Amino acid sequence: MIRGTTRLIAHVGYPTHTFKSPMIYNPWFQRRGIDAVVVPMGCKAEDYPQFIRLAFRLSNIQGALITMPHKTTTLAVADRVSVTARIAGAANALRLAEDGALEADMFDGEGFVRGVLGKGQALQDRAALVVGAGGVGSAIAASLARAGVARLALYDPNDANAQALAGRIAAAYPGIALQTGSNDPAGFDLVVNASPLGMNPDDPLPMDPERIGPATFVGEVVLKSEITPLLAAARARGCRYQIGTDMLFEQIPAYLEYFGFPKPSVAELRESAAISY
């Protein structure tokens, strides 16, 4: 039940039809008896800077989840940005500090990495390919670097984005072998689709699945379906994989703590979630 006392968490992006976070947060709020709700808000890129500042003038807003296409723009909107978000070049969470400043942080990468490690995939001294150097891809790449991968390949259709990300990672983690310009998945221990490819039925695959080795772990961020075309192809080759919602579950406890709520376990979130596709 939404009341006049309900605290709002805005889930801001465009389009909103693939959003899954409300199906995880809201059942958990109800289960715990917490008077809060996550509300999807469709906002186009050109309207976002003005909209998000006005949203945080609402007296009952607790925070905002930020998703495509606004994660990189959020850095310019915020008054204070975490170190993690600066390295990633993007943010996916906003909150008001006690002094009224708008603070930004990034949890995508750590959520993705925690999910991969939890499935038994080692990252230390391994080789990884990340396809997509936007907000989520940048965050995942930064967290993979932090987790100790030895070689990191970054690909984006706009190569300047990949090169800029490589530069930020090199400055923070100078020991990593970095490369850009290719989405060939051959020879990697981990490959990640961090692009929007897979959201629409006619999208091309983000990489050639025939070039993915059967021992390679495949990660996905697209939430449109549980098994995307890339994951279906990877599964047919015998690969282990991580679905898009796994990243959500792993990062939500950190989000909730950031917004001032109790911190649940991932198991508790999974028990109460009501995800549909």
- Give the termini distance in whole angstroms: 24 Å
Report the sheet-strand fraction. 15-25%
Residue share in helix: 25-40%
Low-confidence stretches: none
Any idea what the shape is?
globular
Look at the structure and give the mean pLDDT. Answer: 95
Q: Main β-sheet: number of strands, strand sense, barrel status? A: 6 strands, mixed
Radius of gyration: 18 Å
The class by helix and strand makeup works out as alpha/beta
Adjacency order of strands in the biggest sheet: 2-1-3-5-6-4
Q: Write down the secondary-structure element order.
A: EHEHEHEHEEHEHEHEEEHEHH
Question: What is the number of E strands?
Answer: 12
- Count of helical segments? 10
Please give a quick description of this structure:
With 277 residues, this protein is α/β, with parallel strands linked by helices.
How is this structure best described in words?
This protein is an alpha/beta fold and 277 residues long. The protein has ten helices and twelve strands. The strands form two sheets. It has a six-stranded mixed sheet. It has a six-stranded parallel sheet with strand order 9-8-7-10-11-12, with helices on both faces. Strand 1, helix 1 (22-32) and strand 2 form a beta-alpha-beta unit. Helix 5 packs across helix 6. The radius of gyration is 18 Å and the shape is globular.
List keywords for this structure.
single chain; 277 residues; alpha/beta; six-stranded mixed beta sheet; 10 helices
